Fold each of these.
Amino acid sequence: MEDVLRPVAVIGGAVLLTLILVWLTDRALRRIDAAHPETPLWGLLRRCRIPLQVALCAALLHGSFGQAGLKSADKHAAGIGQALTLVLIAATAWLVIRAAAAIVESSYSRYAASGRDAARVRRVRTQVMLIQRVVTAVVIVVAAASMLLTFPAMRAVGTSMLASAGLLGIVAGIAAQSTLGNLFAGLQIAFGDMVRIGDTVVVDGEWGTVEEITLTSLTVRTWDERRITMPVSYFTGKPFENWSRGGAQMTGTVFFHLDHGAPVEKMRQRLLEILQECPEWDGRSWNLVVTDTTPSTIVVRALVTARDADTLWTVRCEVRERMLEWLQAEHAYALPRISTAPAPLGTPVLDRAQEPGAESARG
């Protein structure tokens, strides 16, 4: 009977103690979260319940498994202990990643709630996301190395590996030159404030918004919902347009090709009326001038402003549509025309054989 009750008591006690400790921890986090609504940290830490359960249960089983008295498992005690150690390392890494994500997300949420500068908020968001990815990568590498070192064979090879670490580092650096370049470029973008999540950029002639930045790549969402993914080293080695740097406000133009008799002064007044009725116009500036002339037309440029690139596109389309509608309704003569003249009646049509010089050409 003792051979049955003792293993059940040891293993069941470890599982029960794990559930009790995790329940108490979750209850304490819930009370702290209710008492401090100004920060979401304590509520986010509750996401660590599952990795905490696995890590705590693995630790308790690893420490008490030898007291269970399972004769059938004595032959595999080393293997079971090795498995529990691997589970404990993996669960601890999982727990650290979850906790780091909760701390980063809480810090960004508090900063975003109190920050009024949208550009600075986007910069902090880019930095904390890249920091979180770096922490995750480091934890995974350390956990994988720790799991490998638990095998005796790997510990024996460790000395020779350390002796040749310099040569392996040179070989790995040459083989992963592009990857390492993108990695350092990602860190340079995060802390150099070159481009941020939410910035409006133009790359390779494509206009879009930065949607995601990782350690090695950057994704741009275009206006037609396409995603362009490119290595982050592109932004450190080639020129690109960042319309959001220094502020999201933008100035745009609308060009009209009109007849020389177009009422420019009335168009200027009409432009102001259109902008005053357009809610997307930010009121900073506007203008309408003649910028060029040709033998048949003049070029009229309307200048408008808006708070960001998307709104500017809407303002330009609104001005173009309403101005053309007004010109067609009240000043149709201002639209460009092609002057033509009728051919004189009764003019004889010469045959090619009768054209002057035809004889000499044949001769």
Note: The longest strand covers residues 281-293.
Amino acid sequence: MTRGPTLPAHLPGRVAVPALPEQSRCTPSPKSLDAFNSAPADAAVRTLLTCLRSPSWAHRISDHRPYPDPESLLAASDEAAYDLTWGDLSEALAAETLPPLPDDAYGAAHMALNAAQAAYEARFGHAFVICLHDLPPDEALDHILGAIRSRLANDPEEERVVAAEELRRAARGRLLDLLRGAGL
């Protein structure tokens, strides 16, 4: 599949995006940050690539260790995500997949999500990405479908800006999850 053009330098207008859930304020443990700071560079990069599949983002964060506190690490993550080149963002978007539906989701939900995803990819040339961090699993399907429908109204350049922001937010949430003990 041919990917669409890369991100514009600025947001040229209004963008349709649904309200997003607030991220939790749960504080990661100091031990997990110490483990991340002291991990070998290649291991830190591999771990970071599970948060955002951008080698330049992962290397930048790894190269600037140690971080004095989780907030500094998250700020560095945000800054590195904002500074990604258009090519880096396209690469990261190409590696994204939709979050899985809950095991008890009915067949029609899978069909609706598959159809919405196909329409989105046909229109924009990349996978739909959305941050569901801290959203209750039973609300995920409605949130995803509402967001896809809303964002299908964006023009391609506007949507790439929204997708980049969702990618940044998803990376931040995944990094928080790792720091909370799921992997660091």
Note: The chain has one domain: 30-182.
